[in-house]
């Protein structure tokens, strides 16, 4: 996979899996921050307040280095890890998968639990629409008004997204473009007279 492309889901998806009378409700949610994750966990803990366990795993960031798995009282490694495993096998990021378990009175054992949480997570991801997104960089430029045509020609040809613009004596423009395309855009803009780079992120 190219380093400036990552896979995530478009919107939330849900599925129900039953194993020996235990019911597993799996919810996959697109997220961008740990704060968002905390909010979702609170919402679903309230919604399923009477459930025995609410286990989850998440992965954040295009490099997929920020992740966590939580067993929420299930035997260690039987819930969070298999959920995380399904996220990883689909190479997804910016995603939270919650699996809520209602105990059906029959113990599933370690391997049974692992399989149930894995299957529940896989089902919810199977219901989700997976898309590829690019890792984009932003740049803010400043230039004098007479050079507007030069800048706009480059923008038209290189096709960055214009996030904001203001025209006065000095013109400002914030552009966003896929990371691997940024060097070419910068090189071309650098040749425009009076143009300077105000900010880059």
In short:
The chain has 201 residues and is an alpha+beta fold. Helices cover 31% and strands 38% of the residues.
Plain-language structure description:
The protein is α+β, with helices and mostly antiparallel strands and 201 residues long. 31% of the residues lie in helices and 38% in strands. The strands form 3 sheets. Strands 2-3-6-4-5 form a 5-stranded antiparallel β-sheet, with helices on both faces. It has a 4-stranded antiparallel β-sheet with strand order 9-10-8-11, with no helix packed on it. It is built from 5 helices and 11 strands; from the N terminus they run E-E-E-H-E-E-H-E-H-E-E-H-E-E-H-E. The model has no long low-confidence stretch (mean pLDDT 90). Strand 9 and strand 10 form a beta hairpin. The longest helix is centred in the middle third of the chain and has 19 residues, at 109-127. The protein is elongated and about 75 Å long.
Secondary structure tally, helices: 5
The oligomeric status of these chains comes to single chain
Rg measurement, Å: 23 Å
Outline the low-pLDDT stretches. none
What overall form do the CA principal axes indicate? elongated
Average of pLDDT: 90
Query: What letter string, H or E per element, gives the SSE order?
Result: EEEHEEHEHEEHEEHE
Tell me the helix content. 25-40%
Sheet of most strands: 5 strands, antiparallel
Number of strands: 11
Would you tell me the structural class of the helices and strands?
Answer: alpha+beta
Percent of residues in beta strands: 35-45%
